[in-house]
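Recall the central idea of this unit: under ordinary conditions, the amino acid sequence of a chain determines the structure it adopts. In this exercise we apply that idea directly, starting from the sequence alone.
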Amino acid sequence: MHLRILDKYIFREVTLAYLFGICAFTAVFIGTGTLFRIAEYITDYGASFAAVVKIFIFSMPAVVIWTFPMSMLVSSLLTYARLSGNSEITAMKSCGVSFFRIAAPAIVLGGMVSIFAIGFNEYVVPWANTAYRNVLNYEIQGAVTTKSQEHIILKQMDNGLMQRLAYARRYDADTQQLQGVTLQEFSKDGKISHVENAEYADWNGSVWTMHNGMIYDIASDEKSGEHTVRFKTQTMPIEVTPKQVVSEQKELEELTMRELSEQIDIMRTQYVDTSKLETEFHQRVTIPMASLVFALVGVPLGLQPNRHTSAKGFAISVVIIFAYYALMTIGNALARSGSWPPMLAVWMPNVVSIIFGALLIRKASR
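Accordingly, the structure predicted from this sequence is:
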């Protein structure tokens, strides 16, 4: 019973410090970024009060997801440093409580936060980012301008099943052309049954017309034959306007992990470099997992024999956070450039932090 009370006590202290950290770091991010952008929208576009409120609300999830790991590090380090400074850790150890039992509440909280953050980053953040862009485009800036874009993907679904999938290497807004077009049609069992490739497709005001391409009818079984036909012009069975082509494309931060995975598979079939997409995909896990990693680092640091003041503990947290995000930036650059495999480069900061935390835990547990 005594240990259960102790667990609740430490867990409560770490949780309260964690919630304070969330509020503090979120306020810093909002004050240095979000409010500045909102001021620009008001002065440059005359944004209404309702639009400003929406922008503020929809920007919050993307901000909060970055504060989870920082708050976990600060809360675990400062809480255990305070307990150690008040000789409470000494009293616990004198009663036979092991280091791992003392550290467990913070590590459990770090694991819980990481699991929650992965789900939050998958379902809430992309939705909020899309809503943010819609408010910015339609309510503040007034309209979506058709602009040239790379890697266009258009889907037609029927009862949740893929019916058609169109991919274009580039959309040229000046000429209203889709360049390097591939159109795939799927059978009811989800297999590709028909493929059309074209050099380009242009918009004539009502339909897209593909030029200089090939049609491939893929056999559904061994008994069926495959057919190949060349064409000079062919109507593209995708009913979207140039404006819809642009508006339907999502930014990376608006894609869920499932959509990122699907887009990676599509672009690989076209022999397109997917390093940028793979980097984003792995970061959807590594950034939330940093909360658990920072708990593993913060607890043994807080339990070091030298007693930290709150100011020193916070300074140590800032240094660790800076080092982690510096490694993350380097890994991101290595992954996107193709110098390192994306998975290895993106996970590098977490792996280094885990090794560092393991060494600290080994030292603190002696």
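The chain has a mean pLDDT of 87.
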